[in-house]
Design brief:
Blueprint: E1 6-9, E2 15-17, H1 18-33, H2 39-48, H3 56-62, H4 71-80, H5 84-91, H6 113-121, H7 146-173, H8 185-196, H9 205-219, E3 227-231, H10 238-253, E4 257-262, H11 265-279, E5 284-287, H12 303-307, E6 317-321, H13 322-329, H14 334-337, E7 346-351, H15 361-373, E8 378-383, H16 390-396, E9 402-404, H17 409-415, E10 420-426, H18 429-437, E11 441-445, H19 449-457, E12 464-467, H20 473-488, E13 493-497, E14 511-515, H21 519-526, E15 541-546, H22 556-565, H23 575-589, H24 598-604, H25 613-619, E16 627-631, H26 637-646, H27 651-658, E17 661-665, H28 666-674, E18 678-682, E19 685-688, E20 694-695, E21 699-700
Parallel strand pairs: 3-8, 3-9, 4-6, 4-7, 5-6, 7-8, 10-15, 11-13, 11-14, 12-13, 14-15, 16-19
Antiparallel strand pairs: 1-2, 16-17, 18-19, 20-21
Helix pairs in contact: 1-2, 1-7, 2-5, 2-7, 4-5, 4-6, 5-7, 7-24, 8-10, 9-10, 15-16, 18-19, 22-23, 26-27
Length: 712
């Protein structure tokens, strides 16, 4: 292992030896793995991941030769000392974690871990000149429990790939250490305390109740690590209250970061703005971009430059999507797994926890349970309508009971009650439009974009507004600004929207009409009525109606459970009604809470293949149907979209362009393409060429000259 074996050559001619790179990577990987008491395991994978670079073939590769499999060599060295799980992490550090496979039936050359190792042992990889000694760490304790082992391997893999990339980046750029320094948790806690100090002399009943919730959260910070619920009625101030618990808890237990997991981008941007104001912008990372750099698909000389575009969640406060969090927990590629190790020893806040899709409920709860039981995290399920998950948590984290942070949630609901619910039965579209026209200010929320447009067309033109995901985000925000202004000035304001307005949008209507949906959606809609509590509950009505068209298939089970929970005139917001709703929903869903059988695949294998990392990554998707992106080149979006078309866009440009994009489904994309309305960028995105299809009132029209119309 002489100096002539090189790992990297920088653009300026500097050289990094394999020994130097292994040492640097091992130190970082051990540090990261220390968060879940696996320092020596982290050190081992760092020490051996690039052992295959001790070969003439790889040295030729550095100078332009053909690609070389250098990962299998390190995996073989791990297996020699009995560290099979560590070997799994090592073998996937460039191409992604492969399925483990079957040690008895897999053949040399198969794409599985077993096939690759067998091929390497039989001389199927370039000979390498490694004669060092690897010290086997103590057992991970996960070998017998395959599900636990799968999470542990991914977490160790995360430590390795992040350490590998960081050490490479530092060498390539000549950097001596971390570029970013953040404030400590105690400092952030003091900033929060300074921010809320003026609140402790509340002048209204509702603010006194909010302060009581905030105080309960701060006092609970010293409680043991574990799994908690925070059941706070809409308007109870759960955003700041949950942050207060998280900061107190992190300081008390020496935890590293706080990760907010949120279902909607709109809430992410809103909450992140609040957190940045309180804690300082540099301490808060938003991560919800669809543009994620995948270093495995790039040439090696570009790695250091491109790494800056990959988030690894090293900030004190992360605000991200449920899609990012859960899909990363079941991913097998470095680009998605790199951040995972920073979940360990963190406080995880799952905002609007009831939004976890029922078809993926089991693997999502298993992932949360693993983060707590295996990796020292604390999880908080935060919502006004708490789902029933105790049985699943006990299955995956026995001995970790779910504890409520706020006592007496039933009394809290009565204290924060600000509306009266009324069911008005089936309504035709004309009758509904007529009823809405009788209000000066009213919000109507429906289950489909088609229904929203049809009702909107029948309203009086003065003060009518439409909101749906067929409008690009900047357009929706402009409409919402106008709506809020008209509400303040007591001007006519009739809004028809899809459910997007329920996602934390701060509007306050005297009356809300809500098409029958899941109980959680009804309660979210109620949060847009008398939001500030300035009217009496009897004067603030939420009218629940049945539309004239059958509900979309996506909502039918939730609607059925809601009807059952509301039988006998039950109050939708009462905690007993909420519990009945989620119990009914679980009963209707049955065993389909893991539709792709992810947990079975990881705990038992698939057709004899154990630990099927790659198969699971391909099948686990939090959102069922993949959407396509249509960029609308208007206003400030025109310039950045032009850069995308020219191939000169930066990551910041793509983020900016996202504010001028509309997500549609593949059949809709095909129809617009057939009509010549789009200019194609790639398989997943296009630019709107026919600007006449975008309306200032209703957004993107999916009806083309060919007479085709697609509505979801």
């Amino acid at each position: 292992m002489a100096k002539e074996y090189l790992a990297h050559i920088a653009e300026d001619g500097r050289e990094q030896t394999v020994a130097e790179h292994l040492a640097g990577t091992a130190a970082l990987s051990a540090k990261f793995a220390g968060a879940f008491h696996a320092q020596e395991h982290g050190r081992l994978v760092g020490e051996c991941h690039d052992i295959g670079k001790y070969s003439a073939a790889f040295q030729a590769r550095l100078r332009g030769g053909p690609k070389v499999d250098h990962a299998t060599a390190g995996a073989i060295e791990c297996t020699k000392i009995g560290c099979t799980l560590e070997a799994c992490a090592v073998i996937g550090h460039h191409g992604g974690l492969p399925d483990y496979g079957n040690q008895y039936t897999d053949q040399p050359g198969d794409a599985t871990f077993c096939g690759r190792v067998k091929k390497g042992v039989s001389g199927g990889i370039p000979p390498y000149d490694y004669d060092g000694q690897l010290a086997p760490p103590k057992s991970s304790g996960n070998e017998e429990d395959l599900l636990a082992a799968s999470y542990w391997v991914r977490m160790l893999y995360s430590c390795l790939v992040d350490a590998d990339y960081l050490d490479t980046e530092r060498f390539m750029e000549g950097a001596a250490g971390d570029e970013c320094t953040y404030d400590t948790m105690p400092v952030l806690l003091e900033r929060l305390k300074a921010y809320i100090q003026p609140w402790w002399a509340p002048k209204t009943d509702i603010n006194r109740r909010r302060c009581d919730i905030l105080k309960a959260c701060m006092n609970s910070g010293a409680r043991d690590k574990g799994i908690y619920t925070l059941t706070v009625p809409t308007g109870g101030g759960k955003t700041i209250a949950s942050l207060a618990f998280a900061l107190e808890h992190a300081v008390q237990h020496g935890m590293d970061r706080i990760i907010y997991v949120i279902p909607y981008t709109s809430i992410i941007e809103q909450n992140a703005a609040v957190f940045k104001e309180i804690l300082g912008e540099k301490n808060v990372l938003e991560h919800h971009s669809n543009l994620i750099f995948d270093p495995e698909q790039e040439a090696s000389e570009l790695v250091a430059r491109k790494l800056r575009a990959t988030e690894n969640w090293d900030a004190p406060v992360i605000v991200t999507t449920a899609v990012q969090f859960f899909e990363s927990m079941y991913a097998n590629r470095a680009s998605k797994c790199r951040k995972l190790h920073n979940i360990a020893n963190s406080v995880l806040i799952f905002d609007e926890a009831q939004m976890i899709p029922t078809a993926q409920l089991k693997p999502c709860v298993a992932a949360i349970s693993a983060a707590v039981a295996q990796f020292g995290a604390t999880a908080v399920l935060c919502t006004a309508t708490q789902p029933t998950l105790n049985d699943l948590v006990q299955q995956f984290a026995p001995g970790w009971p779910i504890c409520e942070i706020c006592p007496d949630t039933e009394a809290l609901y009565q204290q924060f009650r600000r509306v009266t619910f009324r069911r008005i039965g089936k309504q035709t579209t004309p009758a509904l439009a007529e009823a809405l026209s009788g209000h000066e200010q009213v919000l109507c929320i429906v289950n489909s974009r088609k229904a929203a447009q049809e009702i909107f067309d029948l309203l009086p033109e003065e003060g009518r507004f439409h909101l749906s995901t067929l409008m690009y985000p900047a357009h929706r925000q402009e409409v919402l600004r106008t709506v809020k202004e008209r509400l303040r000035e007591k001007l006519p304001c009739r809004v028809v929207s899809t459910s997007l307005i329920e996602a934390g949008v701060d509007v306050d209507f005297p009356a809300v009409y809500r098409e029958m949906a899941g109980l959680d959606s009804l309660m979210q809609a109620a949060g847009r009525c008398n939001r500030e509590g300035k009217r009496g509950a009897s004067d603030s009505v939420v009218l629940i109606f049945e539309g004239e068209n059958p509900p979309p298939p996506l909502f039918r089970m939730q609607i059925g459970a809601c009807r059952e929970a509301l039988e006998g005139g039950a109050d939708p917001g009462d905690p007993t009604t909420v519990e009945r709703y989620f119990t009914s929903l679980r009963s209707l869903v049955g065993e389909n809470i893991d539709r792709e059988r992810i947990i079975s695949a990881l705990s038992q294998g698939v057709a004899g293949c154990l630990l099927p990392f790659e198969q699971v990554a391909q099948h686990f998707h939090l959102i069922d149907e993949t959407t396509k992106t249509v960029y609308v080149p208007v206003e400030a979006g025109a310039a950045v979209i032009e850069k995308i078309q020219a191939g000169t866009a930066s990551r910041a440009d793509y983020r900016a362009a996202g504010r001028y994009s509309v997500a549609i489904y593949e059949p809709q994309m095909r129809a617009l393409l057939a009509a010549g309305a789009l200019s194609v960028l790639d398989d997943d995105s296009a630019v709107l060429a026919d600007r006449s299809l975008y309306s200032a009132e209703k957004g993107l029209s999916l009806q083309t000259d060919a007479g085709q119309a697609w509505f979801i």
